[in-house]
Automatic annotation (TrEMBL):
A Pfam family the protein falls into: Exo_endo_phos
Site (Important for catalytic activity): D225
Name of protein: Exodeoxyribonuclease III
Record domain Endonuclease/exonuclease/phosphatase: where: 6-255
Length: 264
């Protein structure tokens, strides 16, 4: 099996102090994608930046304390690419990808946005540029005999089943009609939502819960962390789970790892 996990760590230095390292030591994953690292590699302890038994590829943001993505792999990548060829986002810490045997894996942290602000405009520009890149990536990978897997925090709930309070969030960033339509376009361009394909008729499974109030205890969450795969790889997915902490106190991020097993 090929096992892949993705998780927004909500600050890797903080997560490392609260349980991330223990989770990483116990995981059976072959690939781990991280988002919202919020640190330059030099600010991370050695065991966090380059954990034993892993090859790590980092892309930090030029703005200190913001964004940041990484991919950890058991297999040494044959290539690493930061960004997706658009100058505005070249140093934003929002995308890094690696090439493995028969597979390209990207870690994505799509802007969260905020209605009526420049943050939403930035998100819109990112989406407009990223979809053509995904199409091109799929085509190039297919020509090389590779599948593509883009994991990460996409910051969009695609369907009503992807967030608990969908009625109250119809005008909120992350559930705007045009954002949902855009994500649908991704899934119509030769990619599949792996977790939803394996869990077609359930609410969630949610992967993010606000730290405010009783969102976690009430399972009032959002499913915004996706594994998005080309169709050949998606067809090989056998299990998909959200590694939700047993209790609020045991959380080391406001997100939970999303882990999928694929047949080799």
């Amino acid at each position: 099996m090929l096992t892949v996990s993705t998780v927004n760590v909500n600050g890797l230095r903080a997560a490392a102090k609260k349980g991330y390292l223990e989770w990483l030591a116990a995981t059976g994953a072959d690939v781990v994608c991280l988002q919202e690292v919020r640190a330059e590699p030099g600010q991370l302890a050695d065991e966090v930046r380059d954990p034993e038994g892993w090859h790590s590829a980092h892309a930090h943001s030029a703005v200190k304390g913001r964004s940041g993505v990484a991919v950890l792999t058991r297999e040494q990548p044959t290539a690493v690419r930061v960004g997706f060829g658009v100058e505005e986002f070249a140093h934003s810490g929002r995308y890094v990808e690696v090439e493995l045997t028969g597979l390209v894996v990207g870690s994505l942290y799509l802007p969260s946005g905020e209605v009526g602000t420049e943050r939403q405009d930035e998100k819109d520009r990112f989406m407009a540029a990223f979809l053509p890149y995904l199409v091109e990536l799929r085509e190039k990978a297919a020509a090389d005999g590779r599948e593509v897997l883009v994991c990460g925090d996409w910051n969009i709930a695609h369907r009503q089943a992807d967030l608990k309070s969908w009625k109250a969030n119809q005008k909120s960033a992350g559930f705007l009609p045009y954002e949902r339509e855009w994500l649908g376009s991704v899934f119509e361009s030769g990619y599949a939502d792996v977790v939803r394909a394996l869990h077609p008729d359930v609410e969630g499974p949610y992967s993010w819960w606000s730290y405010r109030g009783k969102a976690f205890d009430n399972d009032s969450g959002w499913r915004i962390d996706y594994q998005v795969a080309t169709e050949g790889l998606a067809a090989r997915a056998e299990t998909a789970v959200v590694e939700r902490a047993a209790t609020y106190a045991e959380r080391w991020s406001d997100h939970a790892p999303v882990t999928v097993e694929y047949r080799d």
